[in-house]
Design a protein that fits this description.
Blueprint: E1 3-14, E2 17-28, E3 32-36, H1 43-50, E4 58-63, E5 66-67, H2 73-78, E6 81-84, H3 96-103, H4 112-122, H5 124-128, H6 139-151, E7 157-161, H7 169-186, E8 189-194, H8 197-203, E9 206-211, E10 214-220, H9 221-226, H10 228-235
Parallel strand pairs: 3-8, 3-9, 6-7, 7-8
Antiparallel strand pairs: 1-2, 1-4, 4-5, 9-10
Length: 239
């Protein structure tokens, strides 16, 4: 397998508060890799550090053989990384179509119609809602839009931050099925941050566990699902 993302010894601070403490993590091309952990463990910070906001104060982030640790965010996006952030952060006053157009701003305009059709095939609901203001949609529909907007930039690596947060179980199942399809049918490598450990580990080829800014465990999705510590901390109590 070809290594797509290689994070080594990464430290990140918010002011004087250290959020990441020497994180080592890899994502191979074509994989779904998940990062689980309690709220405040540093999972979202790691995704944002990959995208250059905040910057890693030490360590190295290599994407597709190139050091992107100190590259500006817009350059990182142009290299083929897209993020669907925690809390969705769609443009609520814009329509669904306008949000998807925003996702396509770094791409080739010639690809727009084909990419739009691909997103509408994954999320038929968005096609039905394309002229609707996105802020008036349900939470599940907004999450579909956040993922769809990220896909409009044609990423090779998709960073997903808590895609199941606050959604009904049926919608969560649907979102995870789409993530699997994006990976298997469209060949997009996925790095998934999730509190819903059961769904995430069931889906992922490999997983990591993060506690207070450090990676404490790693293994295949199946190994971590069967691990007694992981079960006690993240599965049997609801997460």
């Amino acid at each position: 397998m070809t290594r797509m993302l290689d994070i080594s010894g990464v430290h990140t601070y918010y002011g004087r508060i250290q959020a990441l403490k020497g994180v080592d993590l890899t994502v191979e091309k074509g994989e779904i890799v998940t990062l689980i952990g309690a709220n405040g463990a540093g999972k979202s910070t790691l995704l944002m550090t990959i995208c250059g906001r905040p910057r890693a104060s030490a360590g190295k982030i290599v994407y597709d053989g190139e050091d992107i640790t100190h590259k500006p965010t817009y350059e990182i996006v142009r290299h083929g990384i897209a993020q669907s952030p925690e809390g969705r952060r769609i443009f609520s006053r814009m329509t669904v179509l306008e949000n998807l157009q925003m996702g396509a701003t770094t791409g080739d305009p010639a690809n727009f119609d084909g990419d739009l059709e691909r997103v509408f095939t994954l999320f038929p609901r968005l096609k039905q809602r394309q002229t609707q203001r996105s802020g008036t949609m349900s939470g599940g529909e907004q999450q579909m839009l956040a993922i769809g907007r990220a896909l409009m930039s044609r990423p090779r690596l998709l960073l997903l931050d808590e895609p199941s947060l606050g959604l009904a179980p049926l919608v969560v199942k649907q979102i995870f099925e789409v993530i699997k399809e994006i990976n298997e049918q469209q060949g997009v490598t996925v790095f998934l941050v999730e509190q819903n450990a059961y769904h995430a580990l069931k889906l992922a080829h490999r997983g990591y566990v993060m506690k207070t800014g450090e990676i404490t465990m790693r293994g295949s999705g199946r190994e971590l699902l069967a691990n007694k510590e992981v079960r006690a901390a993240y599965l049997e109590g609801g997460h």
